[in-house]
Design goal:
With 325 residues, the protein is of the alpha/beta class. The chain contains eleven helices and 13 strands. The strands form four sheets. Strands 1-7-6-4-5 form a five-stranded mixed sheet, sandwiched between helices. It has a four-stranded mixed sheet with strand order 8-13-12-11, sandwiched between helices. Strands 2-3 form a two-stranded antiparallel sheet. It comes from Selenihalanaerobacter shriftii.
């Protein structure tokens, strides 16, 4: 089998910063509560005219540049998102047009916050099978558009952004293992109830606030703590590696308490954990690739490092990948 690796990364977030203090003016909350319960200090919020494909485009350009390839060379564009521009056409097709990636197939992938790692796994298979050489995988979200800004349980947690990776054949290292999982019985814990075929958009769904994220925070918290360590250990085993072999851990950026619990299970030191949720909040499918891109750009991750990506989210879903950088 050919080896597949990440050969370029890029990220983007809208300029507009909303701090916890800004939120204190909008809902009954406090900077102290948000920081102590989640680790979040601020998040980015897109303006009215900006959609997911717009921010995906910015991250994609950077990743293409980093990998040194042109959009015309892309064979496949995969956008992981729960906030597509619209139900159809797919955000990946909209992005394909914006990039001028004429030769690329394109589709969206819905796996909640695990979406990017799911996408990386799909891209890996296409490269290993010799089907494609140049794949763009993006996690991109404008979660601000599906938040009830009067609901303190959810609006303080999320933010907007995009992270992109170019996946290509590599000679050494690359993606060593992928683990994907799902538990649909937990779907009700985290969802956007209306706007699909079950409850099409109508006056009632709007009046009843059914077009916003609905979440049982506590249950999701417990699921996340349980699954992150488990998925990471399974991926390490598949890659024939031990916990001691891990150089960096790039977890889904939802909550520092969840990340700490997982890191403890993996016996990692603080300096091995990539965290940027203080700046962006939870950007769902975008969180892992943004964290990865920033760590690479900052020179933290270097050639030969073993890194573990782990996501969990709506579905419920989870996914882990081990990569030799
Ligand atoms: N400000 C102030 N108080 C608040 C706020 C707020 N923003 N939100 C909730 N509270 C209150 C609650 O009402 C509750 O009050 P009560 O005790 O009087 O009822 C109290 O704070 C404690 O609430 P808990 O829910 O017990 O707080 P917890 O410690 O569990 O933290 C949190 C809540 C941060 C949501 C946590 O459960 C969590 O992070 N869950 C995981 C969420 C997550 O990761 N979701 C994303 C998954 S990814 C995807 O696919 C989108």
């Amino acid at each position: 089998l050919r080896k597949a690796g990440i050969t370029g990364v890029g990220s983007y977030a809208p300029d507009n910063i909303v701090t916890n203090h800004d939120l204190e003016d909008m809902v009954d909350t406090s900077d102290e509560w948000i920081q102590s319960r989640t680790g979040i200090k601020e998040r980015r919020v897109a303006d009215e005219s900006t959609a997911t494909s717009d921010i995906a485009y910015q991250a994609a350009k950077k990743a293409l540049n980093d990998a040194g390839i042109d959009a015309e060379e892309l064979d496949l564009i995969l956008v992981a998102t729960i906030t597509p521009d619209m139900p159809f056409p797919s955000t990946a097709c909209i992005l394909q047009d914006k990039l001028g990636a004429e030769d690329a197939a394109a589709f969206d992938l819905g796996a909640g916050c695990s979406g990017f790692v799911y996408g990386l796994s799909v891209a890996t298979q296409f490269v290993q099978a010799d089907t494609y050489d140049n794949i763009l995988v993006i996690g991109a979200e404008t979660l601000s558009k599906i938040l009830d800004w009067e609901d303190r349980d959810t609006c303080v947690l999320f933010g907007d952004g995009a992270g992109a990776a170019i996946v290509q054949p590599v000679e050494t290292g690359g993606v060593l293992s992928n683990v994907l999982g799902a538990d649909g019985s937990g779907g009700e814990l985290l969802r956007l109830p209306a706007g699909g075929s079950r409850q099409p958009a109508c006056l009632d769904t709007v009046e009843n606030n059914l077009h916003y994220i609905e979440m049982s925070g506590n249950a999701v918290f417990k699921f996340a703590v349980r699954i992150m360590g488990k998925a990471a250990l399974k991926a390490l085993k598949k890659a024939d590696l031990e916990r001691e072999d891990v150089d960096f851990f790039v977890p889904h950026q939802a909550n520092t308490r969840i990340i700490s619990a997982a890191a403890k299970r993996l016996k990692l030191n603080d300096d091995q954990i990539i965290i940027n949720l203080d700046k962006y909040g939870n950007t769902s499918a975008a969180s892992i690739p943004i964290a990865l891109a920033e760590a690479v750009e900052a020179g933290e991750i270097n050639k030969g490092d073993n890194i573990v990506l782990v996501g969990f989210g709506a579905g419920l879903t989870w996914a882990a990948s081990v990569i030799e950088w």
